[in-house]
Amino acid sequence: MGVFVLIAQPKRKPNQLFAVLSAVIFIWQTALWGGAFANTVFQAEFWIRSSSILGALIPPAMNLLRISIVYSSLSLWAILKKNRVWFTTWFCVSLLCLSGFFLKTATLPDEEGILVIPDYGAGFILYILYFLISFSLLFSKIKRDCKTFDGVKRTEIEYILLSCGAGLFIGVFFLIVPNITGWIDLGALLPLSVITFIAITGYGIATQGILDVPVLARRIIAYTMLLLYLICLYFVVSVSSRQLLTWLHQPTQPFSNLLATLFVVFSVSPAQGFAQRLANRLFINTPPLNVGSILREAGSSLNSVLTVDELCIRFHRILTEKLETRDITILIRQKEEFIQIYPLDQHHRQSRKTPLPKLVAGESRLFVRDLIQRHKLTPHTRRLLEELKKENAAAAINLIRNSSQLGILLLGERASGRLYAHEEAIAVEGLRDLFSVSYENARLYTELQNSRIYMDLLLKNLVNGVIATDAAGTITTCNHEAAAILRMTPDEIANKSIHILPTPLETLLQEVFKKDNVIKDREVILPGKEEGIRFLNVGAALFHDLENKVMGGLLVLQDRTAIRALEDQVKRSERLASLGTLSAGMAHEIKNPLVTLKTFTQLLPERFEDPDFRETFSTLAGKEIGRIDTLVNQLLSFARPAKPKLDPVHMHVLLRSHIKWFRQQAEDSNIEIEERYEAGQDVILGDEDQLRQVFLNLLLNAQQVMPEGGAITLRTRISGSSIQVTVSDNGKGIDPDDLDHVFDPFFTTKSSGTGLGLAVAHQILIEHQAEIRVSSQLGKGSTFDLYFPLHQPDTPS
Known about the structure:
Blueprint: H1 2-8, H2 13-36, H3 41-56, H4 58-70, H5 76-82, H6 84-97, E1 103-107, E2 117-120, H7 123-148, H8 151-181, H9 192-206, H10 213-247, H11 255-281, H12 291-302, H13 308-323, E3 328-334, E4 337-345, E5 348-351, H14 356-359, E6 367-368, H15 369-372, H16 379-390, E7 395-401, E8 404-411, H17 422-461, E9 465-470, E10 475-478, H18 480-485, H19 490-493, H20 503-515, E11 519-526, E12 534-544, E13 550-559, H21 561-607, H22 611-639, E14 647-650, H23 651-668, E15 671-677, E16 683-686, H24 688-704, E17 710-719, E18 722-729, H25 757-767, E19 771-777, E20 781-789
Parallel strand pairs: 15-17
Antiparallel strand pairs: 1-2, 3-4, 3-8, 4-5, 6-7, 7-8, 9-10, 9-13, 11-12, 12-13, 14-16, 17-18, 18-20, 19-20
Helix pairs in contact: 1-2, 1-9, 2-3, 2-4, 2-9, 3-6, 4-7, 7-8, 8-9, 10-11, 12-13, 12-17, 13-17, 21-22, 23-24, 24-25
């Protein structure tokens, strides 16, 4: 046993000194064996004195083991120094054993004798007093240490106390019973006392999954009582049945043995329960740990918790009440970081950079700090032990959910000072599993509640109106902005049918439910009497579940009435602002021909008779008057454009027909035209004549900026819900300072022209609800992008 304990942890001093104690007892028993088989008086005296000296060494060796447990941080030499009084006393007792005052002589057994009979002197009384005093002193020190120390020290000392008590009980039993009953053969079982002492002490020193001493004592007492009861029952039934069968003149074998065996088999289960209850009553101060009951109570308590904070508080309370745990720390894994969620540091969760979670990762058992150091330390377990000491944690266990690491639980010392032994470890592992499940439930519930609060706040503070319905068309959600837009209250709309909505919105929702399409940026006009007309920008769509079944509809409203009024005001302001530009432009453009006409008119009376003058005057006057007429017509087109007649137009057909007409003119100017019609859909609502005027202006501008030739690219493609038409050239480009003025009236960089072409084109595009964008780089060319809303034939226009 000493060798096995030493191999378990050769560097640990309690293991080393237990091996020493075992060696002392082994040599002592060997000396007793040698004295039993002595052939001469000298040999008998030698072995008696040797066994007495070695026996006297047992109390100092036991105290040495106690000191190594209590003062585990001391060196071996320091432990030996603390035991010097015991060694000195033992040395004196050894000198006593060598004297004739202790042993006079020894008598060898005769032919009928069995053992050597020693003839002790008066010194033997001193020898007995030495044992009584030393063991009394040893027991008092062990009992004091049990009250002083906690954890594994206390447990190991309690095991020494238990082993001494059990060994003493068995030794006294097999000394007294043979003398009382006359069963001398039972005396041969006396060495069981030493075996029991060594076995229990070795278990307390070396085993890893150590049981608490009261638990082990209860089990020993329970199984001992059960064994004695079953032996007595077998004996009584066997004897009684044999007497009965003899009285009935029936054969006693094998019926009496079979009947006794059956009685024993059927009595095991109730007898075991009775023995366990009786053993528990003997340990009133340390009641047994009922793991099943603890888990049932914890399950009902934790499953009813809905928040993480309350769950942690209840979990701590359970560990405090059931396992006497003073404090706990809970770390939860979030990605690669561990967040301490309990206890809270000033009500804030904090990140913890500790390697403990990685050190225990992949393990489901409880790591007890005091038990780790009882075995051979590897680099991994040594690091784990250091981290547990740094965290001031008595134990640590992984929090596991779905075979993955959820976090880690750190346990503080127990209030009772006892160790987290085998049964406590089972209870902690069960509670850990309950907490992991409850934490997931509480976390999901908290996230759901937070999401609901977030959505409520979001809907409440959203600047857009939101109306949601279920699949049956019943309104389930309506925020304050939507109710304000509809001039109603949320209570008047919630849980009502969509028929309560204004007709345009109801029609739009019904269209979405019918076609399962998405509507974006649809302008809806709501008529009103007192509040006036309201202009809404509306979007609508359906939302589906995981099986793609319709869950309901969503309507998003944006009140653009105020914005629409501002836009009209801006347009009026722009027109007023451009009035000055128009006036200046008109004055400049009309003044030149008027000056010419005035000059020739003043010269007309003097040179009327000159035929060349009259011909020049008539030609020039007609030309200048025609220029003024053209200018006024363009100005009227810009200031008061004709209302377009909107019909479905195929953009590709329009462009092809226009390019076919323009291509010859381009070839004369050495210009190549590339057409790339990539749009899959090209139907818009427009006025063909006005659109031709737009593209004519763009193509002529591109031609004019490439007097030496070049290339024009015409391209179409789909951009969202619009068709994008791009007209690009590789001419000289537009100066960045001029880009913001290309659509201004009378702005031009050409030597000839009025600067109204692009302004008129821009005005036409506005009437078509289209958008134009220009980009350019000097020396590389210019690009005009036109965006026309696509027309859906089945969508009301």
